Amino acid sequence: MYWYLIGTAAALLTTFGFVPQIIKMRRTKSSRDVSLATLFQFSAGVILWTLYGLHIEDVIIIAANVISFLILSMAIVFYYYYREK
After folding, report:
1. SS3 of 28, please?
2. Residues 33-63, buried b or exposed e (16+ Cβ, 10 A)?
3. What are the angstrom distances between the C-alpha of 1 and each of 6, 41, 47?
4. In the structure, what pLDDT confidence band is assigned to residue 46 with cuts at 50, 70 and 90?
5. Using CA atoms, how far apart are residues 63 and 7, in angstroms rounded to an integer?
6. pLDDT tens profile 19-42
């Protein structure tokens, strides 16, 4: 039970790790300090984690990484929307 709670906490922290960045981009209307390479690297990682979760049939891994990918996709959209022309 203890490890389940640790795993769930880790999934929540990493799943929503880019939300503060999205909030900052929206508030400042700038993506100047955001690394697009990092967003794509994390996106590739969560896609691979999702595939792994599907392989081992782990709902927590699948759900956490699908949500992470959606959040990262939003961050990428904001990156392009708020980039300086």
Report:
1. helix
2. ebeeeebeebbeebeebbeebeeeeeeebbe
3. 9, 32, 27
4. very high
5. 13
6. 999 999 999 999 999 999 999 999
> Residue ranges of the domains in the chain?
2-82
CA pseudo-torsion sign 57, 61, 66, 72: negative
In the block, which residue shows the tokens 């896609």? Answer: 47
Classify burial at 66, counting beta carbons within 10 Å of its beta carbon; exposed 0-12, middle 13-18, buried 19 or more: middle
Residue 85 has pLDDT above 70, yes or no: no
pTM of the model: 0.88
CATH number of 2-82: 1.20.1280.290
Distance (Å, whole) CA 71 – CA 17 = 9
* Beta-carbon contacts of residue 49 (< 8 Å; ≥ 6 apart): 61, 64, 65
